[in-house]
Amino acid sequence: MSPAPGQESVWDYPRPPRVERSSERVVIRFGGETVADTTSAVRVLETTHPPAYYLPRSSFVDGALLPTPGLSYCEFKGEASYLSVAAGGDLVESAAWYYPAPQPGYELLRDYVSVYPGRMDACLVDGELVEAQAGGFYGGWITARIVGPFKGDPGTEGW
Q1: Helix, strand, coil percentages for the chain (3-state, nearest 5)
Q2: Using CA atoms, how far apart are residues 130 and 2, in angstroms rounded to an integer?
Q3: Can you tell me the distance from the alpha carbon of 65 to that of 48, in angstroms, rounded to the nearest whole number?
Q4: 72, 69, 60: which is closest to 27 by C-alpha?
Q5: Which of 23, 20, 31 has the alpha carbon at shortest distance from 84?
Q6: Is residue 30 within 8 Å of 90, Cβ to Cβ?
Q7: Domain limits of the chain?
Q8: Does CATH number 2.170.150.40 belong to domain 8-147?
Q9: How far apart are the C-alpha atoms of 26 and 134, rounded to whole Å?
Q10: Distance between CA atoms of 81 and 67, rounded to whole angstroms?
C-alpha cells in the first residue's frame, strides 16, 4: 500500500527497529477506567509492524500493573517481562510487557510499558481509537496514519 500524505508505511520502517519519542496523547482504558494517560510515550518502529507505543510506567494508575510470570526475547531489545492489567474489577493476564534491562541502543525503553491494544477496552492516540495488530503475539497499534500490509495478517506467517 502506498502511503498518502501524512501517512507512514511500515515497509519504510527500519530493521533493526528504531525507538523514537512521541508527544502524541496516548490513553489506555480498561475495566471501564482510564489506566494510563501520557504525552511522553515512545514508539518502536520496525519493518512490517505497526508501531508499538510504550508509556512511562509512572503514567499508569497505581495498582493497574501487576507482575505475572512469563518472558520472551527480542533479538534487538532483549528479554521482556510481562504484566497483567487490572482495573474496575477486571483483570487480563499478560496484557502488557516491558524490558527491565534493554539491550544497547534501546535504553529509552527502560521504565516504559506497552500493552496489547486488543486486550484493553480502548487505546487512543491523539483521540483516535487504535486497531490491534492481527495475531496473538504482536502488539502493534494501527491508526489511520499507518499503512501496511502488516506482519500478523493472514498469510504473513513466513515473513
Answers
A1: 10, 50, 45
A2: 20
A3: 29
A4: 60
A5: 31
A6: yes
A7: 8-147
A8: yes
A9: 20
A10: 9
The rounded distance, in Å, linking the Cα atoms of 74 and 101 is: 12
Question: 46 near 17, Cβ under 8 Å?
Answer: yes
pLDDT tens per residue, the chain (159 residues)?
899 999 999 999 999 999 999 999 999 999 999 999 999 999 999 999 999 999 999 999 999 999 999 999 999 999 999 999 999 999 999 999 999 999 999 999 999 999 999 999 999 999 999 999 998 778 999 999 999 999 888 887 777
CA atoms within 13 A on the CB side of 20: 10
